[in-house]
């Protein structure tokens, strides 16, 4: 028997929605006029909590990178 493949599309939609609700532009980044895209790699545990988190692609601005991780952690747990 081949293992069944689970569809986790609902989870990515849930995560994106929660992150959009919670994200805030850091004051230090605003002062520096920092802009950029942060790509975060995270493990989501079975209970919906966030496990390992790392910056997959930095924005080039540590304040933005840190804010991205903090926002993801605040968004958890995911149901």
**Structural class estimated from helices and strands:** alpha+beta
The number of strands is 2
How helical, in percent, are the residues?
A: 40-55%
- What shape does the CA trace take? elongated
Largest sheet: 2 strands, antiparallel
Report the average pLDDT across residues. Answer: 88
Order of helices and strands: HHEEH
Per DSSP, the total helix count is 3
Strands in their spatial order, largest beta sheet: 1-2
How far apart the termini lie comes to 29 Å
Low-confidence stretches: none
| Percent of residues in β-strands | 15-25%
What does this structure look like?
The protein has 79 residues and is α+β, with helices and mostly antiparallel strands. Helix content is 42%, strand content 18%. It contains 3 helices and 2 strands; from the N terminus they run ααββα. A two-stranded antiparallel ribbon has the order 1-2. β1 and β2 (50-57) form a beta hairpin. α1 (9-22) crosses α3 (62-75). The longest helix is centred in the first third of the chain and has 14 residues, at 9-22. The mean pLDDT is 88.
Q: Could you name the key traits of this structure?
A:
single chain, 79 residues, alpha+beta, two-stranded antiparallel sheet, 18% strand
């Amino acid at each position: 028997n081949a293992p069944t493949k689970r569809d986790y599309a609902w989870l990515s939609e849930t995560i994106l929605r929660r992150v959009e609700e919670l994200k805030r532009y850091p004051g230090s980044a605003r002062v520096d006029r920092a802009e950029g895209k942060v790509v975060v790699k995270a493990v989501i545990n079975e209970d919906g909590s966030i496990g390992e988190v790392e910056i997959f692609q930095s924005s080039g601005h540590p304040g933005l990178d840190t804010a991205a991780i903090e926002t993801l952690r605040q968004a958890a747990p995911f149901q």
